[in-house]
Design goal:
The protein has helices spanning 61-79, 90-98, 136-144, 158-191, 217-231, 233-237, 257-267, 287-301, 329-342, 364-367, 383-394, 405-410, 417-434, 441-453, 464-483, 517-527, 529-538, 546-561, 595-622, 624-637, 642-656; strands spanning 14-16, 86-88, 104-108, 114-117, 123-126, 148-152, 199-201, 246-250, 271-276, 305-310, 350-356, 374-377, 490-494, 501-507, 639-641. By secondary structure, the chain is α/β, with parallel strands linked by helices. The strands form three sheets. The chain has a six-stranded mixed beta sheet.
Length: 666
């Protein structure tokens, strides 16, 4: 038997397209790295200052100060108040001239304003009279009265004159300077396109440590060894130990692979560079390889450093796959990555960490010793680890006294750390919606139903005929889930529309790592229960069993083709055909067996499905009265639990005169 367990079984049957959604993963979250923090030193990734002022450049406020000075020089003389003495009208001024009270007069030929002094020495000013200031007759009057007068042309503002000459020239020069700087910026962007986009972290940011990760003691130990080597290399070198050059974190989505890398960044005490696989890809040829070179050069400048590549399968897929050939840009990036990790020139003191949930598509050269020496599996959490994860995510929330995390951990098998974090958050949202100030047990139950089964569709109203058909359909699933000995125990059954399904039968999967043939037989039989129940009661079929048939056919196909659970086929495995773009070669994706073998496989799959349908028909016919009682209870209560279904089956057996000990109690 292979050491690798088969994948978990598909979701339980339900009427319509509804599916039980099991989460994948398991730590206390799958946080991704956040913003770019360049060691907190106020510098950009390229080493330039981030303060907006380069060496030898004036501060930005210098230009604004110069503009303010120029504006003041132009506006202040015109706005500054002047002491011109008593203000007179032109008529009043002329009267004073006739009376001989005016001693001097200064007439502006531009504005017509007249200023001067009276005979007693007081000053005066008037707005003037006309373009010249005074008429010819009034000028004659000034002569007769012996007034000392003169015509003064308007004074020119030298600054305005200078600006009128140089301002157009300055604008033209500024335009050309702006165009030149813009062109330089664009050229600089093109020239720096091969620079690495890695983000640099130090011990202060992020602050995540291994203590913040619940469970996974084995994973922590393997990663801690590498961190300790970088911090205390002499301890390992004394006995000749060599640090692994690469660590590959493998696990389903949501298990916290990136969170472990975040904890390493917080505890390593050495330089930490974070980059994603997609950061190497660009529209220009050779950019990916150039960024890989720059990334490792940046790490070498740090001395001891850790490089974390998230989602490495985007650049590490098998070479020669698909139709791109050896000149594919992604393959050139991978070649450079292989050379930098363990090529002709070795990189001492640099450890590469990577995370992926698709190790099957990675190139073998990337996984060999000397590159990724150590593969660390981050699996789905066990019950004790799920409880620790729930405790971590609920410690900052107001929990009610009736919340039992131990029970909730037992009721959430197959959930990852990300799923559990979402479950706690959904419970908090349900509590707020309910108007409660604490998160109680009922909130966790409703949140689990929402996460696993989908949101309840209250706006969907079924007709009486559809509701009755749904009740018998789900009743068939529930009866078989209770009677069959090797399936998962029934948790609850409902005819309330949830998600995409009109009704759902939910079984709690037990903690398993391998699955027997009897388990899959019972699972297929249970999936046929809804279709068979409708056929027995109504005598016709409808489209409600589409999802059930899809699940049953998928299980039967893998039993025959991959798991060797058919006596006729024997101990042979014919894996499913892989798409070329997922890393398989075009030729190897062709069918590897003859037409006769294909016909035999199809016949065995059909035989499995037909035999389990016949088995379901026999069991439901035997428990016809129990099926009717379950359907009637669903029509009345809409949702019933597994123990209630078992009691209804026992009641039906008693009414039919059958011994009650025939029922299987999970």
């Amino acid at each position: 038997m292979s050491n690798l367990p088969p994948p978990p079984p598909p979701p339980p049957p339900g009427r319509g397209r509804g599916q039980r959604r099991h989460g994948q993963g398991g730590s206390d979250g799958s946080d991704k790295f956040g913003s770019n923090n360049n060691s907190g030193n106020g510098t950009n990734p390229d080493g330039s200052s981030s303060s907006g002022r380069g060496p030898g450049k004036w501060p930005r406020w210098t230009l604004w100060l110069l503009v303010a000075v120029l504006a003041g020089a132009v506006l202040v003389p015109t706005l500054w108040p002047s002491n011109d003495g008593e203000s007179l009208t032109y008529t009043e001024w002329r009267t004073q001239v006739v009376d001989g009270q005016v001693a001097t007069a200064e007439i502006s030929t531009g504005s017509g304003k007249i200023t001067g002094e009276f005979s007693n020495g007081d000053k005066y000013s008037t707005s003037g009279g006309g373009e010249r200031g005074v008429s010819e007759s009034d000028e004659q009057l000034l002569i007769e009265q012996n007034v000392d007068y003169e015509f003064k042309p308007p004074s020119n503002n030298w600054l305005l004159g200078v600006l009128s000459i140089f301002l157009p020239v300055m604008l033209i020069i500024a335009f050309f300077v702006w165009m030149q700087r813009r062109a330089q910026g664009q050229m600089g962007g093109v020239m720096s396109i091969g620079k690495s986009k890695a983000k640099t972290y130090d011990t202060d940011n992020p602050t995540t440590t291994f203590d913040d990760i619940a469970g996974y003691a084995g994973v922590k130990q393997e990663i801690t060894e590498v961190v300790d080597f970088l911090r205390m290399p002499e301890r390992f070198r004394e006995i000749g130990a060599r640090v692994p050059k690469g660590i590959l974190l493998v696990g389903p989505p949501g298990t916290g692979k990136t969170l472990f890398a975040r904890a390493v960044a917080g505890e390593a005490g050495v330089g930490f560079l974070s980059v994603t696989g997609s950061d190497f890809m660009e529209m220009f040829v050779g950019v990916g390889a150039s960024r890989v070179r720059d990334l490792f050069q940046q790490a070498r400048r740090m001395g001891n450093a850790i490089i974390f590549v998230d989602e490495i399968d985007s650049i590490g897929r098998k070479r020669g796959a698909g139709l791109g050939g050896g000149h594919d840009e992604r393959e050139q990036t991978l070649n450079q990555m292989l050379a930098e990790m363990d090529g002709f020139e070795t990189s001492e003191g640099i450890v590469v960490m990577a995370a992926t949930n698709r190790p099957d598509v990675l190139d073998p050269a990337l996984l060999r010793p000397g590159r990724f020496d150590r593969q660390i599996v981050v699996p789905l959490p066990e019950a004790t680890e799920r409880k620790a994860i729930l405790d971590v995510h609920s410690r900052d929330k107001r929990m009610g006294a009736n919340v039992d995390m131990e029970t909730m951990a037992q009721a959430t098998p197959g959930m990852s750390g990300a799923d559990l974090a979402n479950l706690v958050n959904e419970a908090a949202l349900v509590a707020v919606r309910r108007g409660s100030k604490e998160i109680e047990r009922i909130d966790f139950e409703n949140a689990r139903d929402r996460v696993v089964l989908g949101a309840q569709r209250e706006s969907l109203i079924l007709s009486a005929e559809e509701k009755k058909a749904t009740a018998y359909h789900e009743g068939g699933h529930a009866l078989l889930a209770t009677v069959l000995p090797h399936g998962d125990p029934l948790h609850k059954v409902t005819i309330l529309p949830r998600g995409m399904a009109l009704g759902v039968t939910w079984s709690l999967p037990q903690e398993r790592h391998t699955y027997s043939k009897e388990y899959f037989d019972d699972t297929i039989c249970k999936a046929m229960g809804g279709r068979v129940a409708e056929m027995i009661v109504f005598g016709h079929l409808n489209s409600g069993a589409a999802n059930d048939l899809e699940q049953a056919t998928g299980i039967a196909r893998r039993m025959v083709r991959e798991w060797g659970m058919s006596e006729r086929v024997g101990p042979m495995a014919w894996s499913s055909q892989q798409a070329v773009f997922l890393g398989e070669d075009l030729m190897s994706s062709q069918r590897e067996y003859s037409d006769e073998t294909a016909k035999m496989l199809d016949e065995e799959i059909a035989r499995l499905l037909t035999s389990q349908e016949t088995r379901a028909t026999e069991i439901l016919t035997k428990h016809r009265r129990g099926l009717e009682l379950i359907a009637e209870s669903l029509l009345e209560h809409e949702t019933i639990t597994g123990p209630q279904v078992a009691k209804l089956i026992q009641q039906g057996m008693a009414e039919s005169g059958q011994p009650a000990n025939d029922i299987i109690a999970h």
